[in-house]
Design brief:
Layout: H1 2-26, H2 34-47, H3 52-56, H4 69-77, H5 83-94, H6 96-108, H7 114-122, H8 128-136, H9 140-156, H10 165-181, H11 189-199, H12 202-225, H13 229-234, H14 243-258, H15 265-277, H16 279-294, H17 309-318, H18 322-339, H19 344-354, H20 370-377, H21 383-389, H22 396-412
Length: about 425
C-alpha cells in the first residue's frame, strides 16, 4: 500500500514534469511578460559570454536593475551550449523548487500525511510565473530555489537553536546566493537575524556575521567599483514610490492567494470566532487601512496596464472603482489577523515581505509562488486552522482554484 502511494506521487510528479516539457515545446508564456523578459535576459547572457570585465563597464542597472552574476554564469555556459539547450537545462533546474518545498514541509509538519504535503508542494506547478520562468530562463526560479534551500537549513538548524553550526552557515550561504541573483532578497536576513539573536550564543552570531560579510564582498566590490551603489539607493527613495497604494495592492495580492484555503465552513467558523474575540483590534485595522488610503496619490499609476495584480487590473484598470481595492484590502488584513498567530515573527515577516520589492507599482508575478512558500514555510497560523489546512478535503478548493488561474492566464496571454 505504501509503495503504491509512493508510485502515485512519482507519477504525479512525472505528469507535471511532462507538462513543463510540453510548455517548453510550445513556448508557454502564461505569465504574460516572461517571453519579453527572456529577450532582455538573453542579450545580457550573450554580453557576458565574452569579456566580463570589459562588459561590466557598459552594464547599466538603469536598463536592468538585477545584479549581473546570473548572466556571468549562463554567459560562460553559452560558450559551450546553445541558448536553447541552456533554456532546457534551466527548466530541469526549476524542477528542484517543488522538491525542496516538499522537503521543507516534511520537516516543518512532522508526523503529518506526506501525501497532503506533496499535494501542497505540487501547487507550485500550477503557478503561471513558475512555469514561464522555467520555460524562458529568467532568474526568478533559481532565486526561489536558493531561498527555499535557505529555509530548509533554517529548519534543519531548528531555527538556529541547534548546536550544528554547519546548518546555520548553510542557511545564510543559500540566502546570500539568492541575493546574488535578486539583491532585494537581502531583506530576509533581518528575519534570520531575529531568530539568531534570540536562539544562538554570541560566538555563533559573530561567526555568522563574519561569514555573511565575507560573502557580500563581491557584491559590495561590484557596487562600489562600478559606482552603482547610489543608483540602488535612489530607486528605493520614498519620493519615487507610492507606498500607500502599494500597501493596498500588496494586501489584495495576499488575499488572492489566501482565498482558496478559506473556502470551508470549519475554517471560516474559526476565523469568525477570532473575529468576535478581537473586534476592537480589527476595528483599529480597518481604521489603519483607511488612513493609508487617504495618502494614496494616484490610483491610476499603471495606466499602461502592467503591474498591480489581478485585483488592481479589475478594480482600477477595468471598472475603475478604487473603493473596491480598499474594501478588499481591509478584508485581507482582517483575515490575516484572524488567520495567523499573534507572534512578532509573523508581523516582522509580513513587513519584510511588503518591502521586498520597492517598485513604483507592485507586480503579482514577484509574489507567485513565493507567497505560497512563505505561507507554508515561515508563517505560523492558528493551531485549529492548521489542523484543517492539512486535510485532503480542504485541498480540493486550492487545487481547482490555482488550476483555473493557470488556465485563465494561459488563455488571457495567448
Amino acid at each position: 500500500m505504501i509503495k503504491q502511494i509512493y508510485n502515485i506521487r512519482n507519477l504525479l510528479f512525472l505528469f507535471f514534469t511532462i507538462s513543463l516539457f510540453f510548455s517548453f515545446y510550445i513556448g508557454e508564456n502564461s505569465a504574460g511578460g516572461t517571453e519579453y523578459d527572456h529577450s532582455v535576459t538573453s542579450e545580457f547572457i550573450l554580453l557576458f559570454s565574452e569579456n566580463i570585465k570589459e562588459n561590466l563597464l557598459v552594464y547599466d542597472p538603469k536598463i536592468n536593475p538585477h545584479l549581473p552574476f546570473f548572466y556571468f554564469f549562463f554567459g560562460k555556459l553559452l560558450n559551450f551550449f546553445s541558448l536553447e539547450i541552456l533554456r532546457f537545462f534551466y527548466l530541469l533546474i526549476s524542477l528542484i523548487l517543488p522538491i525542496i518545498f516538499y522537503k521543507i514541509l516534511k520537516i516543518r509538519f512532522k508526523g503529518q500525511n506526506k501525501n497532503i504535503l506533496f499535494l501542497i508542494s505540487s501547487l507550485i506547478f500550477l503557478s503561471p510565473y513558475f512555469r514561464s520562468s522555467a520555460v524562458w530562463l529568467t532568474n526568478d526560479n533559481l532565486t526561489l530555489i536558493f531561498f527555499s534551500v535557505s529555509i530548509y537549513y533554517f529548519y534543519k538548524a531548528d531555527k538556529f537553536k541547534s548546536n550544528n553550526l554547519n546548518d546555520i552557515i548553510k542557511c545564510f550561504i543559500f540566502l546570500m546566493l539568492s541575493v546574488y541573483l535578486r539583491q532585494n532578497f537581502i531583506i530576509f536576513i533581518f528575519f534570520y537575524i531575529y531568530y539568531l539573536i534570540f536562539n544562538s550564543e554570541l560566538k555563533k552570531i559573530i561567526i555568522v556575521f563574519i561569514i555573511n560579510f565575507t560573502l557580500s564582498l563581491p557584491i559590495l566590490y561590484y557596487l562600489i567599483h562600478y559606482e552603482h551603489i547610489l543608483y540602488y539607493i535612489n530607486i528605493n527613495s520614498i519620493d519615487k514610490i507610492d507606498y500607500s497604494l502599494n500597501f493596498l495592492i500588496f494586501l489584495n495580492i495576499i488575499l488572492f492567494y489566501l482565498i482558496p484555503f478559506l473556502i470551508s465552513k470549519p475554517i471560516l467558523k474559526k476565523i469568525i470566532i477570532r473575529f468576535k474575540i478581537n473586534l476592537k483590534e480589527i476595528l483599529l485595522l480597518v481604521f489603519f487601512v483607511l488612513i493609508i488610503n487617504y495618502f494614496v496619490l494616484d490610483y491610476s499609476v499603471s495606466i499602461h496596464g502592467f503591474g498591480g495584480g489581478v485585483s488592481y487590473k479589475l478594480f482600477i484598470n477595468l471598472i475603475n472603482i478604487p473603493e473596491l481595492l480598499v474594501l478588499f484590502s481591509i478584508i485581507s488584513l482582517v483575515l490575516l489577523f484572524c488567520f495567523l498567530d499573534k507572534k512578532i515573527e509573523n508581523y516582522l515577516l509580513l513587513i519584510l515581505f511588503f518591502f521586498l520589492y520597492s517598485l513604483p507599482i507592485l507586480y503579482q508575478k514577484y509574489y507567485d509562488p513565493l507567497f505560497l512558500i512563505i505561507l507554508f514555510s515561515l508563517l505560523s497560523f492558528n493551531k485549529d486552522i492548521n489542523k484543517k489546512f492539512l486535510d485532503y478535503k480542504y485541498l480540493i478548493a486550492p487545487i481547482i482554484y490555482f488550476s483555473s488561474f493557470f488556465l485563465f492566464a494561459l488563455y488571457y496571454y495567448s
